[in-house]
Amino acid sequence: MPYNCPKCDRELPSESQRHYCARVSLDDLFKGKPEELLLLFDKLLAEVADWPDVLVGTTPNCITFVHRQTFFVIRPMQKVLDLKFYSATQITEPPVYKSIATAGRFQNNIRLSHTGELRPQLFGWIRGSYELL
Question: What are the φ and ψ backbone dihedral angles of 127, each rounded to 5 degrees?
């Protein structure tokens, strides 16, 4: 059963879950960013937020997606969204620009600037991260 932190109102998997406790709105994260980044985020959110037991939270720098553990992170930057997800094996093909070993798995990063860059393969990788953790 999800738990809402009384200080930051963030939805968490349990009361004992560690988290960055601060109230941050999506509007704050996208303030001053190109409209295309918000549209890109909305498309990612529409796909991932409906998966079973996914909790979406905001921190001062990013949006986190949690299913038992954080499996997907979106960090709005000036001109791109930096996407972070995990995999059991290293991914070296574009658009992944970084894939590093961490805690028995690989952390992968992709940067996207518009919705035309969204591909079914990306959603497959994110779904793999969801199932991995």
Answer: -65, -40
Cα radius of gyration rounded to whole Å, the chain = 15
Note whether 74 and 83 are within 8 A (CB): yes
Which pLDDT value is given to residue 22? 67
CATH architecture of the domain 3-132 equals 2-Layer Sandwich (3.30)
120 preceded by a cis bond (ω within 30 of 0): no
Please state the φ and ψ torsions of residue 99, each to the nearest 5 degrees: -145, 110
Could you tell me which residues are beta bridge partners of residue 107?
A: 86, 100
Better pLDDT: 57 or 77: 77
Per-residue pLDDT at 43: 97
Residue whose pair of structure tokens reads 């498309």 in the numeric block: 43
